[in-house]
Structure formats: C-alpha cells, structure tokens
C-alpha cells in the first residue's frame, strides 16, 4: 500500500463545526496581509493537534479544516497537505509559509508546529563476544510473537537473514501490511510488514519508491537485531561465522524513512511512528541522528514518547560525532541511547617496504598483490603541476599526473573517502592513506589500499625520501585479535546537551566492523568503478550498535512480555558489563553503563520502573514550560500543580548524574529511587564506590524483599567538592544479593 495518501473525506465539512467560526475569524485577519503571503517561501511543517485521534475519519476532516483556516480554502488546504497522521497521532504535515505556521501555532486546538528537518543515518561474532551463544536459552514461542520495527533505508527481502524458516504466520495482534511494491519480492513470516514513507515531492532520485533497500544500511541493522541464522557468512572470507540477530525468531517490520542522497525527514519519521504504533510492534529501532536536544520538539523524541505510552520501547543510536564532548543525540529519558564499542577483532594489512621493513595498516583490502613490490610515490611528487601540489597531497580528483601514477602505489593524506578510486581511475596500483582518525574501524576499499596512522606515515615518507627507487606492496587484509571492549573513537560523547541531570548514552554495544546482511544492489563501497558485491558486509557506527540493543530488548521481552519499556531498559542498564576508564578517559560519557550483557539482562533481580507521570515531572523539573509539554500528553500541563518528582532528577532512572556548580563549595544531589523485585524473595545489600573527593551515602543500606514484585525505596546522597571544568568522576551503587548484582553508575562532572 502506498503511504498515507490523503483520502477524500466521506462527507462534507459540517457547517456547524467550530472550525468554520475560526476560519471566518482567521480569514478576516488574513485578508490584510494576503499580498505578502503570496511570494513567501513555503516549507514543510508538522502540526500536532493531540496525542490521540478520536476517530480516524473525523481526524482527517479536522486536519483539513484546521489547515483550511489558514490556507483560505479547502482546495488549497488539500493541495498543501502531504500527510494526515491518524493512526496513532492526531497530526498533519503541510507546506506552509512561516506566517501560516505561526497562525496555526496560535490556534487553540493546535498543540505544536515544527519545521520539518532532515536527519542522517548513523553510519558475527559480536553475539558470542557478548556472551549470547547460539545455544542460549530462549522462550521461542514468545520470541516468535515479538515484532521489532526498523526505521531505516528499507530491506533486502531476498537476503538469507530474512528467510522465515521455522516461523508460523504473524502473531494475532499484528495489524501491519506489506505491499505489493515495485521490485519487492514481498513479505514472508519473517518480514511481516513493510512500508515506505516519502512525501516531500514523492521523487526518489537514486532510490526507488518501495521498501527495497538500495543502500544496505537497513538490511544490515535489521539482520543484526532479528536476522535468522546464516552459517558461513563472511566478507572475502573475513569474519567468517554464523550471522544472526539477538532474537532470530522475532518478526521484522520495515518502515523505510531514509533515502539515498536525501536522508530521513521528520515528516516521514512521524508517519513511521504513526503506523508502527498502530501496527502492533514491540520494539522500535532507530539508527538515525536526532539532532534536536529539546525533548518536546524532536520528532524521534515525541514519537518515542507516544510509543512508550503504548508499551513500545524505542532504541536509538547515540551518534557518530565523537570524540567531541556533548555530541550525544537521541537523549530523551524514555529512549535507550546506544553508544558503539569495539569487539576483540580488527582487520589489518601488512605493508612491506622495499627496504624489507613491515608496517601495519587498517582496512578491508580484498586484493592479493600480483607482484612482490611496486614503485611507490607520494601524491605531492605525482602532482599534475606545481599549482596542484596541495590538492595532490590528498590525491584529490584531477590533481595527479596519470603518467607519474601508472603502475605505482601512491601515498596520500586522507581528504575524502574513495582516494583509492581516484588513484585506480588513472592507472595506479594502490593507495596508502594517512589518517589521524577513524583508525578503529576498517574501511572497505574498492582497489588495493590501506590506512595508516601518522607515526607509520612518517616511517613511510622518510623511507620514500631516503630510498633511490622506493617501492612497497600491500598484502590482503587479515583478522587480528585485540583487547576489548573499548569505546569507539567515533561514538558520540556526553554530557547530555538535553539535560544536566540525565546520563547519556545509556549503554554500549558492538559497533565496529560488524558483519551483517547487505544488498547485492549496491557495490560494497558505493564508489564508481567498484565491482565488489556481497550478501554480507562489515559496517561500523552507532547505527550498528543500536540494533544489537533493540534485539536484546526483544530477547528480554520474550521472557517478560508484560514488562514496561522502563523496566526493560533498567534490566539492560543495571546488568551491563562495566567498561574500563583506563582506556576511555571520558568514562560513562563514552560508554554509558558499560557493555550490554544479553543473558544477564533477562534476570536483573531488581528493576527501576517508571510510568508516564515520572517523565512529565522530570520535564517540569528541567524547566520545560508546561504549555510546551502538551505535544506529549495531548493537553497543557500545569507544572506547578504536579507533585515534585523523586529528587535531584525527579526520575526513577537506573543511573545517576550530578552536575557540580561552579559557584558552590559543595554540590549535593539527593536521588530518591524505588526498585521492584523481579526475582525471588531476597535481601540486597548496598555497596558504594565513591571516587576521591565525592561522598556518597545510601539509606537504607539493606533492602529486604519477602515476595516478587515488592517495591522498596531508598535515598542516595551525593556530595562533591568544587572541581576543575570538564572533570569527570565515576562512582557506582551496587545492590547485591547472593544471586544478583544490580549496578548503577553514578557520574559526577563539572561542565
Ligand atoms: C526494478 O525493476 C525494473 C524492471 O524489472 C528494473 O528495470 C529496475 O532496474 C529495477 N530497479 C531496481 C532499483 O532494482
Ligand atoms: C567458514 O567456516 C566454515 C566452518 O568453520 C568453513 O567450512 C568454511 O569453509 C569457511 N568459509 C570461508 C570462506 O572461510
Ligand atoms: C613482512 O610481511 C610479509 C607478509 O606477511 C612476510 O612474508 C615477511 O616475512 C615479513 N617481513 C618481515 C621482515 O617480517
Ligand atoms: C600507530 O600504529 C602503530 C602500530 O599499530 C602503533 O604502535 C602506534 O602507537 C600508532 N601511533 C599513534 C600515534 O597512534
Ligand atoms: C509558557 O509559554 C507561554 C507561551 O509561550 C507563555 O505565555 C507563558 O508565560 C509561559 N509560562 C511560563 C511559566 O514561562
Ligand atoms: C496551576 O496549579 C497551581 C497550583 O495547584 C494553581 O495555583 C494555578 O492556578 C494553576 N494554574 C493554572 C493556569 O491552572
Ligand atoms: C566527605 O566526608 C568527609 C568526612 O566526613 C568530610 O571531611 C568531607 O568534607 C566530605 N566531603 C564532601 C564533598 O562532602
Ligand atoms: C547483608 O548484610 C547483612 C547485615 O550486615 C549480612 O548479615 C548479610 O550477610 C549481607 N548479605 C549479603 C548477601 O552480603
């Protein structure tokens, strides 16, 4: 089915509708400025009317009426409206001038108006590494009823990861649909839903109006979350093993919202939430950049809130803008924000220099050299002419002299991706790229190439300078072991720009060199001239980390179908494997609570549970104007009449963060928390780890549970001395029973 087309309403507008009165009033106001309006630039906006539509048919009419009020006529309203969201949201998207948008936001029935923005994608052995072996205990009958939604670039239905072997028909609750679509072989009992959303003009240059994945990103993330078992999956023999998702029996619902060369727009994301919530998904996985730290004006944050109210958990990527501080995105407290970590494997290649010395580069180079050595030249020495020397240093297009490159290896600094294609395009044999970044993730090359750091770069350039006829050879990549886990250099760091009281990211999962499903419709690098294709490929990014946690959320839910999103999130956070501050000086700002531990997350012992009200209390506490909260709850909130929340952060969050004030000798935070016993009767004792200069106390120090689902409250007081700016101190509170360890990181920092 094509997306949410604007349907013709079944009956004409009721003449007595209050909107007519409004319309007349607004038309009266409008007439004076009409001429100015005509030439004004129009952009897409999303207009929210209420959290839940009353009746779908009526909702659509309401949208048209509200829009007619500023557009002047029903016809104009129809022409400018691109979406009417009626399944889960009461909202619409339309092309509006700034003035029309302002008029709409002044209307009583309008909760909020946001300009439509574009988001970016956050571009198998990892499960064994995480301790979730093939033989892990599963609740298969329930797992088969769990539906994981992927908001991404679509899907490759032919991929072996999405075979429906062993799966019966979709669960009864499922209300989603699936095609037919152009070039889409259709759904099966694995892919039980597929839709695409693109209405900003409808065109898709370089893409196809179908849930088909022409990018590879969506197939990769989907197979990481719920992919079926595929033995002997590999890329050029590398990373060989059984590819699989965390919940290989869970179902997949595909919502294509990201488009080749265009990104992912808010309007389409809201449409995907609108549909997915209605369709009956359990988990929503979003490997897409947020970008707006305001929790009430970001489409992912708003959509995830509505999903949370329906018991659906949203998992999203933290972003790839590390190691810059305060770069983390998708930070709403009702979202699980996932950072990327490395596993114990990397891909290297040996470069043998003409003097017999070997140095090491990073990357996926599938090419075996044909000769023992090739002549080696620097980009600068191969410049087309003296004016081009600076561009030639980076081997930019058209800067090199083909005669000086032919038959040679070229040494370049990293300028743009795809340097090896430039060198190959003019007859070069291969490329050695020097880079100071991105060295923890392996790039795939379309021609012989590797990436080296600047120390090795110096060795090579010194050798080129000193040798009479320098030469080298790049060998095919191989797998090497390394120490893990560690935070990826690129993973976005805290502190959370959305709130000083909320630790983000929440959790880490593997996001470096992850092998998963790809598409045969695109070459491995996407570079011109690349003839390498593969059903599986390696990708890196928080995009890859996110679906690991989405899959784990589905896995946990298969054991505890009635748990709230907050309980599932708490289970995932408090059971994480702590990561080392020795290798990652930004601590929890880089890796959150640590690395996700799927098997322990199923049995957390205690959970920090929360309802909708806690989030509203938190937002009021954060200083959000009660009238801006109406977009979340459907009506204005009077923050002064809301009982203050639980303490310093007003949330029953499983982590704690204290921001030290510069004007105070001592900053104190009182964190009130309440845990629910989800294990058998037990006594839990507290262990506090306080960093130097910080005092942490907990009261009581022992929690006695005589039955399952019993709740117990406690109070944590954190007192910190004034400290230098950007200092980060890590502590923790651990509740221990003979069977369970429930760990909460406590982070103290000074902005
Ligand atoms: C879609 O199918 C048509 C007809 O078979 C084909 O020409 C076209 O290349 C296909 N497009 C994609 C993106 O696969
Ligand atoms: C992958 O591993 C399997 C089992 O260990 C082996 O049979 C197969 O040949 C390997 N494939 C490649 C391409 O190395
Ligand atoms: C350099 O690496 C090549 C390929 O692995 C190997 O054959 C050669 O022996 C190495 N040379 C030295 C000096 O280690
Ligand atoms: C460059 O890489 C080499 C080998 O992997 C390593 O020993 C060296 O410390 C690295 N240098 C820098 C500056 O990272
Ligand atoms: C909240 O925002 C509304 C509209 O912008 C404004 O009228 C009101 O004064 C604000 N309230 C507070 C408490 O800031
Ligand atoms: C908000 O609540 C406070 C306290 O209950 C009350 O005094 C105030 O009148 C309320 N404001 C509005 C606009 O309802
Ligand atoms: C921590 O406790 C010690 C001993 O009671 C006290 O001397 C110190 O000032 C306290 N520090 C803070 C930051 O409260
Ligand atoms: C908890 O503390 C109590 C009292 O100090 C002690 O008797 C008990 O053994 C402790 N339990 C555990 C699991 O450490």
Write the layout of secondary structure elements.
Blueprint: H1 18-30, H2 34-39, E1 42-50, H3 56-71, H4 74-80, E2 81-85, E3 90-97, H5 98-106, E4 112-115, E5 118-119, H6 126-129, H7 140-143, E6 147-152, E7 191-196, H8 217-226, E8 230-235, E9 238-243, E10 251-256, E11 258-259, E12 263-265, H9 266-279, E13 283-286, H10 299-309, E14 313-317, E15 335-342, E16 345-353, E17 358-362, E18 374-378, H11 389-393, H12 402-405, E19 409-413, H13 419-425, E20 430-434, E21 449-452, H14 454-466, E22 471-474, E23 478-481, E24 486-487, E25 507-510, E26 514-517, E27 536-539, H15 542-559, H16 565-574, H17 588-591, H18 598-601, E28 606-608, H19 612-621, H20 630-633, E29 656-659, E30 666-677, E31 682-689, E32 694-699, E33 702-705, E34 711-721, E35 728-736, E36 741-749
Helix pairs in contact: 1-3, 3-4, 8-15, 9-10, 15-16
This protein binds 2-acetamido-2-deoxy-beta-D-glucopyranose (8 copies).
Shape: globular
What class would the helix/strand composition place it in? alpha/beta
| Nearest-integer average pLDDT | 90
Helix amount, in percent? Answer: 10-25%
Number of separate helices: 20
Name the poorly predicted regions.
1-38
């Amino acid at each position: 089915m094509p997306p949410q087309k604007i349907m013709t309403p079944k009956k004409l507008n009721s003449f007595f509708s209050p909107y007519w009165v409004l319309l007349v009033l607004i038309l009266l106001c409008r007439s004076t400025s009409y001429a100015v309006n005509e030439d004004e630039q129009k952009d897409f906006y999303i207009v929210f009317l209420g959290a839940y539509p009353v009746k779908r048919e009526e909702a659509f009419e309401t949208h048209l009426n509200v829009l007619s009020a500023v557009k002047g006529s029903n016809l104009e309203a129809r022409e400018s409206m691109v979406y009417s969201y009626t399944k889960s949201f009461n909202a619409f998207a339309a092309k509006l001038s700034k003035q029309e948008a302002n008029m709409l936001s002044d209307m009583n029935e309008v909760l909020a108006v946001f300009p439509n923005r574009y988001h970016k994608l956050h571009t198998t052995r990892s499960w064994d590494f995480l301790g979730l072996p093939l033989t892990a205990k599963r609740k298969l009958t329930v797992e088969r009823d769990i539906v994981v939604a992927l908001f991404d670039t679509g899907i490759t239905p032919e991929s072996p990861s999405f075979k429906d072997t062993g799966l019966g028909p979709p669960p009864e609750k499922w209300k989603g649909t699936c095609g037919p679509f152009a070039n889409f072989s259709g759904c099966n009992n694995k892919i039980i839903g597929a839709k695409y959303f693109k209405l900003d003009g409808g065109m898709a240059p370089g893409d196809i109006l179908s849930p088909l994945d022409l990018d590879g990103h969506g197939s990769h993330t989907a197979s990481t979350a719920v992919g079926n078992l595929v033995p002997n999956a590999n890329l050029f023999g590398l990373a060989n093993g059984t590819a699989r998702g965390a919940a290989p029996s869970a179902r997949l619902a595909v919502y294509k919202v990201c488009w080749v060369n265009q990104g992912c727009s808010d309007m389409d994301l809201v449409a995907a939430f609108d549909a997915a919530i209605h369709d009956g998904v359990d988990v929503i996985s979003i490997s897409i950049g947020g970008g707006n730290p305001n929790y009430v004006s970001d489409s992912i944050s708003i959509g995830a809130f509505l999903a949370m109210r329906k018991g659906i958990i949203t998992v999203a990527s933290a972003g790839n803008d590390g190691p810059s501080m305060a770069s983390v995105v998708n930070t709403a407290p009702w979202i699980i924000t996932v950072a990327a970590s490395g596993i114990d494997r990397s891909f290297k290649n040996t470069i043998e220099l003409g003097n017999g010395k070997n140095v090491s580069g990073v990357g996926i180079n599938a090419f075996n050299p044909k000769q023992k050595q090739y002549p080696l030249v620097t980009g600068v020495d191969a410049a087309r002419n003296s004016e081009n020397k600076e561009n030639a240093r980076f081997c930019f297009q058209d800067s090199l002299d083909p005669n000086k490159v032919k038959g040679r290896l070229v040494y370049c600094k990293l300028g743009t991706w795809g340097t090896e294609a430039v060198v190959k395009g003019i007859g070069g044999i291969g490329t050695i790229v020097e880079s100071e970044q991105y060295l923890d993730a392996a790039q795939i090359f379309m021609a012989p190439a590797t990436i080296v750091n600047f120390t090795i770069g110096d060795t090579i350039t010194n050798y080129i300078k000193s040798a009479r006829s320098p030469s080298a050879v790049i060998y095919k990549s191989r797998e090497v072991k390394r120490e893990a886990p560690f935070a990826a250099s690129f993973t976005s760091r805290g502190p959370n720009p959305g709130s000083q009281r909320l630790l983000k990211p929440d959790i880490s999962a593997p996001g470096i060199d992850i092998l998963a499903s790809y598409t045969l419709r695109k070459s491995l690098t996407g570079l011109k001239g690349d003839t390498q294709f593969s059903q599986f490929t390696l990708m890196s990014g928080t995009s890859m980390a996110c679906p690991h946690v989405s899959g784990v959320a589905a896995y946990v839910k298969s054991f505890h179908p009635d748990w709230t999103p907050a309980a599932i999130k708490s289970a995932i956070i408090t059971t994480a494997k702590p990561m080392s501050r020795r290798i990652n000086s930004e601590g929890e700002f880089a890796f959150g609570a640590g690395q996700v531990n799927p098997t322990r997350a199923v049995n957390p012992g205690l959970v920090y549970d929360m309802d909708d009200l806690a989030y509203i209390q938190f937002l009021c506490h954060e200083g959000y104007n009660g009238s801006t909260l109406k977009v979340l709850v459907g009506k204005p909130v009077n923050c002064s009449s809301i009982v203050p929340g639980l303490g310093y952060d007003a949330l029953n969050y499983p982590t704690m963060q204290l921001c030290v004030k510069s004007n105070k000798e001592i900053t104190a935070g009182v964190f009130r928390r309440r845990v629910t016993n989800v294990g058998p009767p037990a006594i839990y004792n507290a262990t506090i780890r306080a960093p130097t200069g910080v005092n942490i106390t907990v009261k009581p120090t022992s929690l006695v549970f005589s039955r399952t689902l019993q709740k117990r409250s406690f109070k944590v007081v954190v007192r910190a001395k004034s400290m230098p700016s950007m200092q980060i101190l890590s502590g923790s509170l651990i509740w221990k029973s003979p069977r369970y360890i429930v760990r909460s990181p406590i982070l103290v920092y000074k902005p």
